[in-house]
Design a protein that fits this description.
This protein is α+β, with helices and mostly antiparallel strands. The chain has 2 domains: 121 residues, Roll (Ubiquitin-like (UB roll)); 78 residues, Alpha-Beta Plaits. The protein contains 6 helices and 9 strands. The strands form 3 sheets. The protein has a 5-stranded mixed sheet with strand order 2-1-5-3-4, sandwiched between helices. Strands 6-9 form a two-stranded antiparallel ribbon. β1 and β2 form a beta hairpin. The relative contact order is 0.14. The protein binds iron/sulfur cluster (2 copies) and FE2/S2 (inorganic) cluster. The site of FE2/S2 (inorganic) cluster has 13 residues, from loops.
Amino acid sequence: MIKISINNQAVEVKAGKSILQVAKKAGLSIPTICHLPGLESRSVCRICSVEVEGHNKLLPACSTVVEENMQIQTHSTKTVNARKVLMEFIIAEHGGLETLNTQVRDYASQLGVNNARFYLHDQKLKDCNRYSSDYIQLAQEKCIHCDRCIRACRDSHIINRSHRGSASLLTFGEDDSLLDDTACSSCGDCVAVCPTGAIYSDR
Ligand code: SF4
Ligand code: SF4
Ligand code: FES
């Protein structure tokens, strides 16, 4: 066990736990979007960022492991303001609040974010949506690159990511196949875990 402080409360926690796990155990709710319980965190969305004494930058709670004497603030003004701005970027980049799934909209509502002050929607991404199958639809422009769908799919070759950074795209199969031409079983696991509705099914 190690001693830490979370929101000025001293607690003893098991070594090796993430800040997110420790906060949850302490009854604190930290928003998450890209994190998928049970799988390694990729720390893409940063919505879970928290303040840790001694660090100038906020740290992602989902992937930062607690250390002895760590002083953590999960809901300081700095963290809440950072989450608000991140949420605005997510809304702006992915086509508006109404396009995001219920969980993300709930987080936005809790943060008091009802819309974005700017618009970053990329029509080019819409033009890349050529990979849908009869069952699965893809709205590339809503993707936040969290890779939850890739990690949820039991066949690691079906959903892939090509290019990096803002040029990043989801592709299907090993050579940009149509999803229908892959081993996809239409299980729907990727749809179930997508936080933004970028992978979805009308059926
Ligand atoms: S429907 Fe199932 S098998 Fe097909 S891509 Fe999604 S998770 Fe993979
Ligand atoms: S399609 Fe959804 S689950 Fe997959 S990487 Fe994009 S946002 Fe994440
Ligand atoms: S939930 Fe932690 S970085 Fe996305």
